[in-house]
Amino acid sequence: MKTAKTPQEVHAVLAAAFNTKNLDVIMNVYDANGIIFPEPRKEVSGQSQFVEAVKSICAVPGVMEIKTVYCLQSGDVAVGRSEWSITDKGKTQVAAKGIELMKQQPDGSWKIIIDHAFGAEANLVA
C-alpha cells in the first residue's frame, strides 16, 4: 500500500486510495481514531462509525480527484486545503472544498487525523 511520505503527498494518495474502492487501502491513509465529515455538518469519530463513513463515500460512483490548494507544515503536523470531486461518466457526483489536518506517524508516513471534506465551503458555518 502506498503511504504519503510528505504531507504534500497526502491528497494524491487519498484520491488514489478512494479510487481503488478497497476499504483497507483507504483506511491506511487515515488515523481511524480521528474525525471525518462525510457530509456537511456531520462529524463522525470512533472506529466503526469512521469505517461506515468511508464506506458511504466509496458508494458514490466515479473517480475522485483532489487538488491541493495549499499545505502548511510545522514539525509533525500539517494542514491542507483541498478542492475535490467525484465524477462519473462526465457528470460531477459531488464536489467540495475541504480542510485536512495531518500528522506524521512514527514510521515517517503521514495520515489524516481530521478530514473536514466540506470545511472550506463559503456557506458552511461550524
Automatic annotation (TrEMBL):
Domain spans labelled DUF4440: 9-112
A Pfam family: DUF4440
UniProt superkingdom: Bacteria
Coiled coil regions in record: none
SUPFAM superfamilies reported for this sequence: NTF2-like
Signal peptide (from-to): none
Protein name as it appears in the record: DUF4440 domain-containing protein
Lineage: Bacteria, Pseudomonadati, Bacteroidota, Sphingobacteriia, Sphingobacteriales
